[in-house]
Amino acid sequence: MTTLLAAFGLYNLTDAARSRIGRALDEAGLVVEPPMAVVQRAGSVRLSSRNPITHDEPETAGALPHGVSLWRWPAGVAVAAVPADVAAATPVFVDVVVGHADGDRLRDALLKLLPDLPPEAIDDLLQADVEASFKRTHASGGPRLASVYMALPSHDQARQVPSVEVRRALVELAVTPNCLLVVRHTAEIEVDGASTGDADVPVPEAYIAELQALGLAGAADPLEAAMIVLEHAVNSFGVLEADLASRLDFWRLTFARKPSPERGLLVGLQASLPNVTQALQPLRHPSALAWAGFEQEREAKHVRDQVERTLEALQALGGAAASALSLVDQLRAERYQERLATLAAVLLAPGLVAAVFGSNANLQDDWLDLLVLLLAMPGTAILSYLGISRLFRAAD
């Protein structure tokens, strides 16, 4: 729900905010579960279309399903989905975005397009893995299969909302002598470590452009191109770490200017970082080097070193967030003690006045004395409150 509020530029889930968000989603043809009237700010919501969503169909017979694109990577240009053109373009880069086409049609199209790829390999790629992995290549040959997570840009950094949103998508690879097949699954959105929904991955043109910036055009074969895809995925977590670190630095600056007991960002970091770290851990396994083989051993070590640096930065970020959280907890404890001291001081002065009145028999027979008592008790309480408040402000 915090992500939805941020998308509308809101923070508090007031009745007006519920009405505005519900009306906008209804006009867009979306159904919210649970309803906006009962959902809590810390809860999760699921958005679904009021009308059934149908998969995009190709405009012409024989065309590839929507979400599949072919690229001649030295030039970074799209290739027509005609077998003769694909053969002439080898080695070729095939980018598949899962979820834009029916699974059976997608499988059949890939089998026809890439006849040297076994059906079980395509089935493995289209079914998202639970975690990143590097699968052992059969002794008799066959494609090299791997899966890795990549982090996607979030929308909450610019708004400085008191929560941490992490978007990550699983990318699966199949490497053959003539082709690099990249299957990108729908991204998962996590807010403060809890899954809240799905998000689209970048369009093929933007994705290929990012790979080109890392040197895809200079890749000599599909395996070298696959190492660039892995490097891009690892770099994305470095960018995520830098974004989270900048948010923590902004929080520190704000806290130094005006200490605040707000701890939402810090708790979000503590909850999100373990999932981010877990997504990178499989790339430290020796199977990653074995998967790359001797011909790409140097690049594989470079990627692993980058993983180690990113994990160290994430660990340092977690330690910094824990230290900042201890400062907030200390501030909360100090303010609690200040409130207790203020309350004790406010109650002490009227108590002393009442004690003096009760112990002096001469002050108990006249109604004027009672009036003085009734005025003196709240007066001394107010003076005590003002005095101790000023004392605490001077100490700050």
Q: What count of helical segments does DSSP give?
A: 11
Q: In terms of structural class, how would the helical and strand content be classed?
A: alpha+beta
Shape: elongated
The sequence of SSEs as H and E is HHEEEEHEHHEEEEEEHHHHHH
Q: Which bin fits the share of residues in helices?
A: 40-55%
* Radius of gyration, taken over Cα atoms and rounded to an integer in Å: 31 Å
Query: Which band does the percent of strand residues land in?
Result: 15-25%
Number of strands: 11
- Sheet with the most strands, sense and barrel status: 9 strands, mixed
Q: Average pLDDT value? A: 79
Instruction: Give the low-pLDDT segments.
Output: 52-59
Termini distance?
36 Å
Notes on the structure:
This protein is an alpha+beta fold and 396 residues long. 52% of the residues lie in helices and 15% in strands. The chain has helices spanning 2-7, 15-27, 83-89, 103-113, 119-126, 204-213, 222-257, 264-280, 286-292, 297-359, 367-395; strands at residues 30-33, 46-49, 68-72, 77-78, 92-97, 133-134, 144-152, 165-176, 179-184, 187-191, 194-199. Strands 3, 4, 5, 6, 7, 8, 9, 10 and 11 form a 9-stranded mixed β-sheet that branches. Strands 1-2 form a two-stranded antiparallel ribbon. Helix 7 packs parallel to helix 10 (297-359). The longest helix is centred in the last third of the chain and has 63 residues, at 297-359. It starts with a helix and ends with a helix.
